[in-house]
UniProtKB/TrEMBL annotation:
This is Transposase. GO terms for molecular function: DNA binding; transposase activity. InterPro entries: Homeodomain-like_sf, RD_transcriptional_regulator, Transposase_8. Residues 66-93 form a coiled coil. Belongs to the transposase 8 family. PANTHER family: PROTEIN DISTAL ANTENNA. SUPFAM superfamilies: Homeodomain-like (SSF46689).
Length: 102
């Protein structure tokens, strides 16, 4: 079975669609009709924009949520976890050897 082709919309297009749909006198359905997209797409983008899920929107309020940033955060969290394990081991070893000296 052939897969349907999906359109790739730019980040600016998605942000503008969400902004228009959030205006008090507009609905997502009206904006979707104007832009020629399905209304559900605007709801999805709105959710993604608010949660920053799946990296759809890379910058919000000057904070970079790009893939590179996410990978760096993941790497640093892993390193922090490893350092905490080493610290805990050293605390236990220090307590053990302190007992033997007495």
């Amino acid at each position: 079975m052939a897969r349907m082709k999906t359109n790739a919309y730019s980040e600016a297009f998605r942000k503008e669609a969400v902004r228009l749909a959030n205006l008090p006198d507009r609905t997502a359905t009206d904006v979707a009709k104007e832009l020629g997209i399905h209304p559900g797409q605007i709801y999805n983008w709105r959710t993604q924009f608010s949660k920053l899920s799946k990296g759809q929107f890379k910058k919000v309020d000057g904070v970079d949520y790009s893939k590179e940033e996410a990978e760096e955060i993941r790497r640093l969290k892993k390193e922090v976890s490893k350092l905490k394990e080493e610290r805990d081991f050293l605390k236990k070893a220090t307590a053990y050897f302190a007992k033997e000296d007495k």
